[in-house]
């Protein structure tokens, strides 16, 4: 649960902005989407390997 400390004189827009930042940093929405469908561990591992290969190719300049 996210808790936002708001002062009496603080604007509601600022408090909402703080809440959105905390919500994004907590990655609650990403966790919710991951839990909606089950992905096999082998599929997760394969996607991680493919991402690593892609990042390595971009870093070396082989991928355009």
TrEMBL record:
GO biological process terms on file: translation
One Pfam family per UniProt: Ribosomal_S21
Transmembrane annotation, as ranges: none
A single Gene Ontology CC term: ribonucleoprotein complex
InterPro entries to which the protein is assigned, alphabetical: Ribosomal_bS21
Coiled-coil boundaries: 9-36
GO molecular function, a single term: structural constituent of ribosome
Keyword Ribonucleoprotein: yes
Entry keywords, A to Z: Coiled coil, Ribonucleoprotein, Ribosomal protein
Superkingdom, taxonomy of origin: Bacteria
Family: Belongs to the bacterial ribosomal protein bS21 family.
Name this polypeptide is given: Small ribosomal subunit protein bS21
Organism: Pinibacter aurantiacus
Gene that encodes it: rpsU
């Amino acid at each position: 649960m996210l808790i936002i400390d708001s002062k009496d004189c603080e604007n509601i827009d600022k408090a909402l902005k703080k809440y959105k930042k905390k919500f994004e940093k907590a990655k609650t929405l990403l966790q919710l989407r991951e839990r909606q469908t089950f992905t096999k561990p082998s599929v997760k591992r394969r996607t991680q390997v493919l991402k690593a290969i892609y990042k390595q190719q971009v870093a070396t300049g082989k991928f355009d």
